[in-house]
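User: I'm putting together notes for a lab meeting next week and I want to include a structural view of one of the chains we've been expressing. I don't have a solved structure, so I'd like a prediction I can at least talk through. The sequence is below, exactly as it appears in our construct file.
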Amino acid sequence: MRSLDLQLPGVACLRSESEQDAADSNPDIHRQYSRSHGRRFHGCSDCLFAEGRCLHIRHRVVLRKGICNESILTVCFYLSSNHGAPLVFAQAPPPWSKGANDPATQKGYVFHVSDVDNVPDLHGNPCNTRLLMFIGGNQLFVLPQLVAAFERQHPELMGHIYYETLPPGILRRQIAADDTLTLDNLTIQVKPDVYEAGVRAVRQMELNGKLSGVVEYATNDLEIMVPAGNPKHIESLKDLVRPDIRLSMPNPKWEGVTNQIVASLRKVGGEKLYQAVYQNKVKNGQTILTEIHHRQTPMRIMSKQVDAGVTWASEVRFQMRIGNPIQGVEIPENQNVTAIDAGGVMNNAPHPMAAAQWLAFLKSPEAQDVYHQYGFRSLPALSH
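Assistant: Thanks for the context. Below is the predicted structure for the 384-residue chain, given as C-alpha cells.
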C-alpha cells in the first residue's frame, strides 16, 4: 500500500535551562544541537535558528520518556522584539482553533502539547464516519460553523463527520496514494466522500472521472498579508520586489492559490514581476515557499522571519479575528484575480447521499452568511 508521507518543518524543540543558556552564548550550538543530543530526541536531523530563535525543525521530534517536566525544559522557538524582549501573541502557534474544529462528540482523553503534539489540519474522528471530506485549507476557519449548522439540519450525522484542511494538491496526492496519509509516525487511510478546492482543480477531477455532482459555491480574492502596522510600508504587489522585503509565498507544486497569485503578479508587472518574486527571490532566499501557506505564512510573519506574503483575503480576516498581529494590504480589483471554490462527490464515496446534502447546503443562505463573515463572496447566482 502506497501512502503520502507528509513531513513539515516543526516550530519547536525542547532543551534544559542549562543547555538553553549555553546555546544563547554560543550560536554554533544552535546548529549542532539536534545532532549532538540524540539521547533526548529521535530523528531530529537539522534544527535551524535565526536571530536567537528556532525557525524550523526538520524531520521529526519524538521524546523518549513521555512528557518532560516543564520546570526544567524550555521551548527553543521564541519571538523577540527589536530590543530582545519576548513577545507573546494571541494565538501564534497552531492549532488556532484551540480544539473547536473537532466535530467529534466523544473526545476521550484530550492530549495536547503546543508545538510538539498537535495536528491542526485533521478534524474529528476518522472511525465510524458518515461524512468524510477533503477540503482546501483556505476554508479551515469557516468549517466549525458550517459543520455545526449542517449537523443541526442532519442530527444523525452529529459526531460522525471527519474532514481534512490540507492544501488541495496534497489532498489529491493523498487520494492518489490509496487515500493514505503519513504524518511522521502516524499513518491513516480514509476514503473521502467530498473533495473541495478551486473550481479548476475540481473540474479537472470531474473530467478525469474522479468525482461528479460539482457545486460552485463561493469566491475569494487575494490580499497581501503583513504584520500589524505594516512596518515595511508595503502598498502594492510592486513593492514585493524590494530587496528589503522577505516573502513567504505558496508553493506552485501543491498550493492552488499560486495560480491566482502568478496571474495577479503578471497583471501588475508582467513577466518581470513574476520572475522577481517567484524565481530570483527564491534563488537568493528572499522568498521562502510554503507547504501549508495558511499556517506557515502568518507564523513566519509573526516570528519576523518574513515581512509579507500573498494569501487569500479570507485568511487575513481570520488572523485578525483571533487577535494575531496581522493585517492586510488590499489588491485593487483590476489587479486581483478572483477564485471560485467548488466541490464534488467522489465517485467511490462511501456516503454519497450525505456528500450531496453537504454540497447543497453550501449554497444555502445560512452557509453563505458564514462565508461572508470571513471575506468570501457569493457567486452572482447565489447572492441574497
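A couple of points you could mention at the meeting. The two ends are 47 Å apart (CA to CA). Residues 9-89 have pLDDT under 50 and may be disordered.

User: Perfect, that's what I needed.
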